[in-house]
Design brief:
The chain is an alpha/beta fold and 243 residues long. It has eleven helices and ten strands.
Amino acid sequence: MKRVLALLIWLLVLPILAAAQMPPVTVFAAASLRGALDEIAGQYGGQVTVSYAGSGTLARQVAAGAPADLVVLANPAWMDWLADQEISFAAPIRSIASNRLVVISHQAGNPLDDISALPERLAAGRLAMGHRDAVPAGAYARQWLQSIDLWNMLEPQLAETDNVRAALALVARGAAPFGIVYATDAMAETRVHKVYDVPASHHDPILYPAAALSTGGQAFLAFLASPTARGIFTAHGFDEVPE
């Protein structure tokens, strides 16, 4: 009986000991991952601190020596830029999720069946989106608008933000009647309504590359590929990375 009791106690404390042995992890992550990554961090066995911002801002901070264990960006181009800064990675760069672009509106029940009607529907209002050069969602949006010949017409009415969640907030508050964000952002905010799905063929693939900068970051990166993490990404609207 004593042996059985001792075994039960050992099984109860084993997860606690395992968590205690895992080093704390600091993650720099693209703003659009907020929510999904918070939930994944809660399922991880160790302490995880996540700092969210625009990908360009995060890449520059890491290049300047910010103490991150793992960095997850929303654009391979910014990860390529970071690699060019001669940063030493602890593991190969790996894409952990993909996304889609949508047009959102503050008003419900008014879909944009014909996207060429966007300038007329916008009238004198602003079109919210991430900054065209520094924020991946903004760069993808510009590619799309240029591909359908609406960029020159809409450029004077853009409200460009430091990250995609700030663009989402402008539409949610009614400060901008329309915005261009990721599909996952639209799912995360009940005060906005998706009015148009942007064809993926009109811009570069939206991928989230991740790079570990320490052994702790390497362990959390491995967890991001686990069935638990993939299930959370899917529940928040992210897509699997294409083979």
